[in-house]
């Protein structure tokens, strides 16, 4: 902003009563600092608007570039073998961060955290100039100690270009003396700035901002349930409260502001019985200072919030702290929290199964003990084949919280609502019904992975663009004195409501107490399968199985398969045969060059060392290659490959959409049983494709081309024929040779089992029935309206 304009704005704010005398002086001080540093030359439209939240995303782009510059500088210092002091200090620093967070944190991520600290510390100083956050927060002090060691290398020389941004934040905050107003700015900064400046961290952790209406509903509901079940309140002494995924601290700040903790209870509660964890450095900083500011506004005095830890909540319970030097106070807080009897857990768990692409190098972390608990309580009791979704972060959070509250307590989460009715979550639902005395599910809908009228009925998304999944507010109550367990209550917010209408309804209800008083709960009686909603028709089990790979039960098809998953469709698929051929030749050529470069740089390392280094090494330029886990492993082993023209085959990519596919075990991540169904381009076959378990709707297609996995949603493919390699003992009238490019001889047999044919012949003894007849009968049955309606929930 030009100098004159800045002065006019400051004067206008003071004259209008928006600024206090104190903030008026602060504004003038910002102006003076700007003059001294010579950064006030700007008539640029973008910078004129810098105090406006709608333009903070523009700053995020600039700051992202500057952060990358900081990162490059720090890496350059650490890569220099002459900087022994800095390298030694960084190793100790990184090891302690891994101890406090988790072992998967790479050196690159540690460097990124340092860059985040460099850029964001002045933001907090601008917003909360009256607090001594930097001097009191243990993590901030630890970060600054490391950066002070690197300071002589002039790593911050780009930072002056951000002074205008910091000034804009300070200008925006000036005159806003109440905590609620500053919270609003923090939310805008977090939403507009953080996502743009550090997008990878946001994506991996499934970070979304929780609407205040939802937060307040959870807090008031937990207080009501505490009174009803245990005769206590959130302010009662001995009731320890934890937000394990605190984000920007909204749950704790709203708790402090709720009035549910009496004034005479507040100081003790704040100091001893309110706790929060956060893994993202920037969010941790925001949460800590946000909570401290709210407490200051309520109590009239500043006191550091000692209940917050920089930690990975899941990892915290995997092992004990081993290192406590740089972040000694943080480690002390962690150890103290682990010993407490936590009675209430509230929050918004992250939603994330894992990365979409290995090019992201952004995979979720595995937690041995927690995942083993999921396996033995949720996965082992599930009838689903693919149980990957049970390790989604929000389900991990439910498992972790269920164990953390022990035998008595309350968990209040807003989360993905997929667990309420997904087939893969049947084991989870069974376990919840056994572990908790009362369960309350307030379903907010918003599933935008639906289409048409169904999508419109789902209504608005509570988290806006932050999530396309259905959302629910869930309360899990463990009361050891309760006469019954597994009482499940369900309330659906309703059809066709916009996001704003949903939030207004949540706000008007205040808590679960209102839903109960208005008799709006529906009690759910789970069936034997663990279904809560849309319970299945058990007569479905009287029919012959279509296919089964786990048991020796009577079945129609001896084998079946999911469609091909390439994990690099942009390379392996194309409508043009020449284009897919050229793309694959280019990618394979680039891969082989990476093998040469990798071997040259890692000569002498063993295979384990090479595999650990791959993610740091590979060129992730998506215009050159699409990496997958398997291909990275092959790179580490030094495997090279040639382009194979006989791998080109026609595939059904999406419904009624044929494309050319490079069908190859190396460059398709999963081919599964497809080589036995479509072994090459000349092999004739027909498959019935049906949507997989957990799909949004049931549908079926038939095709004579090799199907992609998402030709039909997670489609399972049941073939007319299966192809086997000829052995010396094989004698079959259907022998044929493949093309000259593929010299493997094959023979073909029916995929329908002999037992399946006998089953039909016994049922219809007077009819002549062939295996091919059964194949087409199955396809016809899948189109029967009566069949589809009767067994929709199966």
Overview in brief:
The protein is of the alpha/beta class. The protein has 31 helices and 19 strands.
User: Which shape, going by the Cα principal axes?
Assistant: globular
Q: For the report, how would you describe the main beta sheet?
A: 9 strands, mixed
Average pLDDT rating: 83
**Helix- and strand-based class?**
alpha/beta
Low-confidence runs (pLDDT<50, min 5 residues)? 13-54, 354-362, 730-743
Share of helix, binned: 40-55%
Radius of gyration equals 30 Å
User: Strand fraction band?
Assistant: 5-15%
Write down how many β-strands occur, each being a DSSP E stretch of 2 or more residues.
Answer: 19
Descriptive overview:
With 794 residues, the chain is of the alpha/beta class. It contains 31 helices and 19 strands. Strand 2, helix 15 and strand 3 form a beta-alpha-beta unit.
Architecture blueprint of SSEs:
Layout lengths: L2 H13 L5 H17 L7 H4 L7 H24 L4 H17 L6 H21 L5 H4 L1 H13 L12 H11 L5 H19 L1 H7 L6 H19 L9 E4 L6 H8 L5 H11 E5 L2 H19 L8 E3 L2 H4 L11 H12 L2 E6 L20 H12 L13 H12 L4 E8 L9 H10 L2 E8 L6 H7 L12 E8 L8 E6 L6 H11 L2 H6 L4 E3 L36 E2 L6 H4 E2 L2 H25 L5 H11 L11 H8 L11 E7 L2 E6 L11 H4 L9 E4 L9 E4 L2 E2 L8 E4 L1 E5 L20 E5 L3 H10 L7 H11 L3 H6 L4
Parallel strand pairs: 1-2, 1-4, 2-3, 4-5, 6-8, 12-16
Antiparallel strand pairs: 5-7, 6-7, 8-9, 10-17, 11-13, 12-13, 14-15, 14-17, 18-19
């Amino acid at each position: 902003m030009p100098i004159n304009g800045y002065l006019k704005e400051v004067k206008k704010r003071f004259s209008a009563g928006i600024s206090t005398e104190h903030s008026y002086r602060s504004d003038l001080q910002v102006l003076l600092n700007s003059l001294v540093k010579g950064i006030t030359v700007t008539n640029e439209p973008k910078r004129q608007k810098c105090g406006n939240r709608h333009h903070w995303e523009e700053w995020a782009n600039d700051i992202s570039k500057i952060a990358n510059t900081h990162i490059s500088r720090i890496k350059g210092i650490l890569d220099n073998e002459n900087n022994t002091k800095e390298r030694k200090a960084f190793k100790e620093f990184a090891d302690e961060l891994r101890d406090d967070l988790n072992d998967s944190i790479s050196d690159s991520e540690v460097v990124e955290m340092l860059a985040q600290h460099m850029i964001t510390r002045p933001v907090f100083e601008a917003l909360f100039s009256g607090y001594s956050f930097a001097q009191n927060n243990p993590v901030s002090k630890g970060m600054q100690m490391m950066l002070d060691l690197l300071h002589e290398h002039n790593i911050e020389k780009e930072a002056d270009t951000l002074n205008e941004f910091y000034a804009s934040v300070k200008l925006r905050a000036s005159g806003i003396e109440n905590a609620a107003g500053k919270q609003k700015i923090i939310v805008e900064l977090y939403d507009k700035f953080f996502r743009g400046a550090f997008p990878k961290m946001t994506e991996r952790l499934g970070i979304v901002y929780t609407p205040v209406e939802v937060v307040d509903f959870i807090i008031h509901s937990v207080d009501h349930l505490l009174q009803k079940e245990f005769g206590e309140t959130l302010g009662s002494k001995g009731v320890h409260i934890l937000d394990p995924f605190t984000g920007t601290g909204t749950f704790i700040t709203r708790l402090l502001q709720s009035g549910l903790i009496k004034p005479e209870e507040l100081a003790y509660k704040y100091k001893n019985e309110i706790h929060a964890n956060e893994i993202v450095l920037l969010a941790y900083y925001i949460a800590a200072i946000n909570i401290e500011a709210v407490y200051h506004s309520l109590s009239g005095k500043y006191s550091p919030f000692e209940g917050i830890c920089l930690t990975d909540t899941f990892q915290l319970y995997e092992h004990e702290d081993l290192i406590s030097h740089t972040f000694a106070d943080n480690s002390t807080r962690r150890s103290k929290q682990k010993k407490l009897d936590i009675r209430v857990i509230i929050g918004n768990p992250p939603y994330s199964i894992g990365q979409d692409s290995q090019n992201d190098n952004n995979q979720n972390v595995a937690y041995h003990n927690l995942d083993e608990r999921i396996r033995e309580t949720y996965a082992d009791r599930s009838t689903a084949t693919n149980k990957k979704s049970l390790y989604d972060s929000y389900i991990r959070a439910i498992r972790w919280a269920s164990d953390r509250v022990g035998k008595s307590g309350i968990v209040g989460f807003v989360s993905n609502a997929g667990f309420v009715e997904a087939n893969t979550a049947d084991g989870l639902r069974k376990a919840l019904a056994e572990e908790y005395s009362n369960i309350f599910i307030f379903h907010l809908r918003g599933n935008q992975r639906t289409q048409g009228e169904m999508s419109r009925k789902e209504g608005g998304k509570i988290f806006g663009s932050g999530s396309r999944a259905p959302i629910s507010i869930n309360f899990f109550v463990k009361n050891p004195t309760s006469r019954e367990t597994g009482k499940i209550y369900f309330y659906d917010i309703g059809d066709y409501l916009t996001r704003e209408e949903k939030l207004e309804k949540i706000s008007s209800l205040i808590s679960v107490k209102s839903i109960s008083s208005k008799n709006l709960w529906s009690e759910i009686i789970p069936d034997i399968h663990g279904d809560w909603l849309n319970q299945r028709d058990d007569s479905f089990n009287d029919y012959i199985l279509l296919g089964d790979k786990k048991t020796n039960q009577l079945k129609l098809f001896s084998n079946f398969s999911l469609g091909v998953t390439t994990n690099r469709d942009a390379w392996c698929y194309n409508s043009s045969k020449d284009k897919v051929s050229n793309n694959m030749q280019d990618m394979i050529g680039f891969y082989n060059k990476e093998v040469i470069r990798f071997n040259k740089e890692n000569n002498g390392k063993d295979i384990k060392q090479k595999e650990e280094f791959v993610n740091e090494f590979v060129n992730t330029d998506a215009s050159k290659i699409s990496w997958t886990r398997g291909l990275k492993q092959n790179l580490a082993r030094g495997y090279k490959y040639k382009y194979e023209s006989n791998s080109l085959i026609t595939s059904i990519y999406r419904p009624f959409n044929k494309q050319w596919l490079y069908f190859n075990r190396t460059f398709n991540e999963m081919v599964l049983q497809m080589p036995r169904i479509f072994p090459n381009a000349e092999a004739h076959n027909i498959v019935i494709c049906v949507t997989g378990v957990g799909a949004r709707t049931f549908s079926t297609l038939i095709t004579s081309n090799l199907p992609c996995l998402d030709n039909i949603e997670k489609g399972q493919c049941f073939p007319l024929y299966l192809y086997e390699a000829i052995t010396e003992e094989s004698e079959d009238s259907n022998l044929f040779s493949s093309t000259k490019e593929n010299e493997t001889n094959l023979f073909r047999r029916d995929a329908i089992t002999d037992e399946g044919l006998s089953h039909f012949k016994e049922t219809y003894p007077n009819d002549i029935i062939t295996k091919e007849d059964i194949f087409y009968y199955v396809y016809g049955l899948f189109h029967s309206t009566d069949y589809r309606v009767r067994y929709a929930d199966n």
